[in-house]
Amino acid sequence: MEEGSPAAAAALLERAAQAEPESRSIREALARAQFNSRRYADAAGSFRWIVDANPAEDYAYYGLGMALWRTGDIEAAQEPLAVAVAMRPDLRHYVSALTQVRATLRARQV
């Protein structure tokens, strides 16, 4: 991924995840690579796996929310982003993402 090919990284990490299915670190790297290669639904699935395996992973909630947002499921994105902010209110990018999602949802109601 550092060399600019998130799609290639995702392909490699998918094989690594098959070999080490319980590895959260591999799954997080895979989720990031999927997100960066614009495979948002796949990224959401990978981030959801991390959340299910370890509900204390604030970054996984953030990643899940961001991936859902990018798929267009803004309503579903709100909850994991809110959890991430509740866990880490000091992280501005978490707060900013949640604020933007909520503003978009409010704008849709008008």
From TrEMBL:
<dbReference type="Pfam" id="PF13432">
    <property type="entry name" value="TPR_16"/>
</dbReference>
<feature type="repeat" description="TPR">
    <location>
        <begin position="58"/>
        <end position="91"/>
    </location>
</feature>
<keyword id="KW-0802">TPR repeat</keyword>
<dbReference type="InterPro" id="IPR011990">
    <property type="entry name" value="TPR-like_helical_dom_sf"/>
</dbReference>
<dbReference type="InterPro" id="IPR019734">
    <property type="entry name" value="TPR_rpt"/>
</dbReference>
<protein>
    <submittedName>
        <fullName>Tetratricopeptide repeat protein</fullName>
    </submittedName>
</protein>
